[in-house]
Amino acid sequence: MEPFQRLDDVAMPMGTPNVDTDQIIPARFLWRGRKDGWGQLLFNDLRFNDDGSEKPQFVLNRAEYRPARILVGDRNFGCGSSREHAVWSLYDYGFRAVIAPSFGDIFFNNSFQNGFLPIVQPLEVCAALRGLLEATPGAHIVIDLEAQTITAPDGTSYDFTIDPFRKECLLAGTDEVRFTLSQEDKIAAFEKKYETGMPWM
């Protein structure tokens, strides 16, 4: 995974609450493999008409927001059915973080497993950020993971919290499995010491 340290990039506002995983990636595409690429399918039914043409009213189809890597959503983002594919489609499109007042629990946990950062901020902060992005399409937000800060387009700074272990994994570009495997020598030493101290086990 790509290490996540500091992201200074275009942000996209999406003020719809309860954006569920089926809106992020429709269930009919879930037969595809991870390596097949998912970015082109992101928000498929919201972005495209049945004939494949773009819906001009959808925010991601506006030229100013196409290069966005940060999404500012509303409450309960990523709710609905369990599917890691929702995070894959966001990541493969180019997004690296979502800022929202709350998240679906499974989506929230899947995000960290895939090098993707979900940030919880108060409802009023998210509304203020979306307002700035709507007023100045193409504006940047800066996310500094090490400092745990968000800098809005107008320069206002907000702190955010994150589990220390998850932060460490994101900074290193690793996940829990890879981190555990990197501790193989320490695990082997512990097991040897344990066996020596308790030979009857």
Structural class: alpha/beta
Residue share in β-strands? 5-15%
Main sheet properties: 7 strands, mixed
Spatial sequence of strands, sheet with the most strands: 4-3-2-1-5-6-7
Percent of residues in helices: 25-40%
Summed over residues and divided by their number, the pLDDT gives a mean of 91
Taking Cα atoms only, what radius of gyration do you get, to the nearest Å? Answer: 19 Å
Distance from N terminus to C terminus (CA atoms, Å) equals: 39 Å
Report the oligomer.
single chain
Discrete helix count:
8
**Total number of β-strand segments?**
7
Question: What's the SSE pattern?
Answer: EHHEHEHEHEEEHHH
Basic shape: globular
Poorly predicted ranges = none
Describe this structure in words.
- This protein is of the alpha/beta class.
- Helix content is 34%, strand content 15%.
- Strands 4-3-2-1-5-6-7 form a seven-stranded mixed sheet.
- The protein is globular.
- The termini are far apart.
Features:
201 residues; 8 helices; alpha/beta
Topology:
Blueprint: E1 6-13, H1 21-24, H2 44-47, E2 70-72, H3 85-93, E3 97-100, H4 105-113, E4 117-120, H5 123-135, E5 140-144, E6 149-151, E7 157-159, H6 164-172, H7 176-182, H8 184-197
Parallel strand pairs: 1-2, 2-3, 3-4
Antiparallel strand pairs: 1-5, 5-6, 6-7
Question: What would a concise description of this structure say?
Answer:
The protein has 201 residues and is of the alpha/beta class. The protein has 8 helices and 7 strands; from the N terminus they run βααβαβαβαβββααα. The chain is 34% helix and 15% strand.
